[in-house]
Amino acid sequence: MFVCFSVKTRVTIRGSKSVVSVDFLEEKQFVFQCYVTTDPSTPPTVRWYKTEPFGDLVRDEPPFVYVAKEFLIIMVYPNCSSKCSKYLGEYRCTGGSNYSSENQTITLSYQYRPQGEYVTC
Q1: 3-state secondary structure 75-93
Q2: What is the mean pLDDT of each run of 10 residues along the chain (121 residues)?
Q3: Which of 17, 50, 82, 91 is deepest in the core (most CB within 10 A)?
Q4: Sheet holding 28-37: strands in order across?
Q5: How confident is the model at residue 17, as a pLDDT?
Q6: Does pTM surpass 0.70?
Q7: Is the sign of the CA dihedral 56, 18, 94, 77 positive or negative?
Q8: What's the half-sphere exposure (Cβ side, CA atoms, 13 Å) at 117?
């Protein structure tokens, strides 16, 4: 018996917007979920890549970056701009099956906010 699935792989990044502004004056946690739907015959694969400068696979780098299955978590701490700035840039989630794959990207960019300017809730 031969079964053919025609379900194309779809990748959706859930979480913050596709372009996120980061300032280094307050602690913030960014959580992105790479949601993959594909044909039911094979489990989907999910991988996160930092596209700049080399397209490297993202790995845990505590306390700033965590990768847990389909989740990418990036932590920003107050006044860590020299250490945290290397985590800014574009990230690509690649999801797929044995038959097809797709990519989506999100971008973390620097937002300058003068030291005396505070956000009120």
Answers
A1: EECCCCHHHHHHHCEEEEE
A2: 58 72 82 87 88 88 93 88 85 87 88 56 35
A3: 91
A4: 10-15, 28-37, 71-76, 65-68
A5: 64
A6: yes
A7: positive
A8: 6
pLDDT given at position 121: 35
For residue 23, what are its two tokens? Answer: 């300032």
* Domains, the chain: 12-108 (2.60.40.10)
- The answer to whether the beta carbons of residues 54 and 63 sit under 8 Å apart is no
What DSSP line would sit under the chain, residue for residue?
------PPPEEEEEES-SEEEE-SSS-EEEEEEEEEE--TTS--EEEEEETTTT-EEP--BTTTEEEETTEEEEEE-TT-HHHHGGG-EEEEEEEE-SS-EEEEEEEEEE----TT-----
Distance CA 65, CA 46 (A): 16
Judge contact between 96 and 7, C-beta under 8 A: no
